[in-house]
UniProtKB/TrEMBL annotation:
Keywords: Secreted, Self-incompatibility, Signal. It holds the Pfam family Self-incomp_S1. Belongs to the plant self-incompatibility (S1) protein family. Its main location: secreted. Transmembrane segments: none annotated. Coiled coil: none annotated. One of its GO terms (biological process) is rejection of self pollen. It is found in: Secreted. This is S-protein homolog. InterPro entries: Self-incomp_S1 (IPR010264). The lineage of its organism: Eukaryota, Viridiplantae, Streptophyta, Embryophyta, Tracheophyta. GO terms for cellular component: extracellular region.
Length: 428
């Protein structure tokens, strides 16, 4: 047995290595963290009119937001490329006299490695005629490319079809509209107004109060692959319990009424009942899901996917406003989480920079930022701009957190006082 122990250990290490390689092979999620960081710098070189340059960059996984870069200033993105060298960041560039969006792949791992193998810094000058990359040997901006101003129609159609097949984003607009109506049918003494809150994977339809015997309707285009799903919470005034149900499940409902475009439901405490297309009676009934079960499902789902994008988890918006009002200096911000480096951003006085993300169901999401300004360029201040546990104590279930950055420290907007009164010291 003792002689087999080293062999078992070797086999386990080989298995782990294989799994890591397959993970890298099949995904490009936020890069590969054993790879060194890559820095891509974009310099505004619109020297003809010295106008501001507006940049919007995305990868397959991340939307880096819109950034306005003054003439002769720069914007930088930082990331880990994957081992397969398939990492790609594409950007749109606009300026006042440009009239149209100019598109370009600012980082293409295969293309750029041919110009500078294993480089970790790529510097670009953006001008009206073309983007030009710096030659690492001559230090001249010699590698120039044409803009990608349009996409062929055939490719657009192909991408739209693939988009429909793999997602449920806003439905598929060549499909006829589907109408789903929910009637408040709870007429017992415990009844009253019904509060309905419906969502799909992509859309939050908001909260609606439906009086007894009245109805609320949602209208949408289902996708061709029949994966469209709308899930709703239901609550009555005399109960503290939320009930949940998938009010539209394309696969399930097509089995009851194929190609129907109208589905009518009556919602009772005993469960939702769908109208039968032939008898016109509400005879197709289901059980409501209790809140505790849904919480369990959420936790189970999050345990397998780590981060839940959708399914009752809202996007969170954190806005950082430059309030260095003594000399109106620019504020330089660099934010990171455990998974993402959001790059360096320069915020003019009284302007703001926003980050958007899905928090974890475990209440452990954290974004920390470094901040500095021209008055003390060598001094860097640090602060956790979003700490899920801390911020939820100040505003439970908030989706927007607004901060003003002063020299003395950051202050968060209070939903109670409607002022920036929740102030903290800089991290030590």
């Amino acid at each position: 047995m003792s002689s087999s122990t080293p062999l078992n250990l070797i086999l386990q290490l080989v298995l782990v290595a294989c799994l890591l390689f397959l993970s890298c092979k099949t995904t490009n999620v936020r890069g590969w963290y054993f790879q060194p960081k890559t820095h891509v710098v974009m310099i505004n070189d619109l020297e003809s009119d010295r106008s501001d340059l507006t940049i919007h960059c995305k990868s397959k996984d991340d939307d880096l937001g819109i950034h306005v870069v003054p003439f002769n200033s720069s914007y930088e993105i930082v990331f880990h490329p994957n081992l397969e060298c398939t990492t790609l960041f594409h950007c749109s560039f606009t300026w006042p006299s440009g009239k149209i969006d100019h598109l370009f792949d600012i980082y293409d791992c295969l293309r750029d490695n041919k110009k500078c193998n294993k480089c970790k810094h790529y510097i670009w000058k953006i001008n009206s005629t073309s983007p030009c990359m710096q030659n690492n040997e001559t230090k001249k901006f010699a590698f120039c490319y044409d803009w990608k101003n349009s996409t062929p129609l055939g490719l657009v159609i192909c991408l739209l079809f693939l988009w429909c097949k793999i997602t449920n984003v806003k439905g598929w607009y060549f499909q006829p509209k589907t109408h789903v109506s929910m009637i408040n049918g709870q007429d017992s003494p415990d009844g009253g107004d019904l509060t309905v809150h419906c969502r799909s994977e992509d859309d939050d339809l908001g909260i609606h109060v439906v009086p007894f015997n009245s109805s609320y309707e949602i209208v949408f285009h289902p996708n061709l692959s029949c994966t469209t799903l709308f899930h709703c919470s239901f609550k009555w005034p005399n109960s503290d319990i939320y009930y949940f149900f998938n009010i539209y499940d394309c696969y399930r409902d097509d089995q009851k009424c194929i190609k129907c475009k109208h589905y009518d439901w009556k919602i009772n405490l005993t469960g939702p009942c769908m109208k039968h297309i032939k008898t016109k009676n509400f005879t197709i009934c289901y059980d409501l899901i209790h809140k505790v079960l849904v919480v369990f499902l959420l936790l189970s789902y999050s345990a397998t996917k780590v981060r839940v994008s959708g399914f009752f988890i809202h996007k969170t918006h954190v806005a950082i406003t430059n309030y260095l009002d003594s000399d109106r200096a620019d504020l330089t911000v660099h934010c990171k989480s455990k998974d993402d480096d959001l790059g360096v951003h320069v915020i003019p006085f009284n302007s703001s920079y926003e980050i958007v993300f899905y928090p974890s169901v475990w209440d452990n999401t954290l974004f920390f930022c470094s901040m500095k300004w021209s008055e003390t360029p060598l001094v860097t201040h640090w602060f956790d701009i979003y700490d899920e546990k801390r911020d939820n104590k100040q505003c439970q279930s908030c989706e927007h957190y607004d901060w003003k950055i002063n020299r003395s420290g950051p202050c968060m907007f209070s939903q109670n006082t409607k002022q920036f009164t929740i102030c903290y010291d800089w991290n030590k």
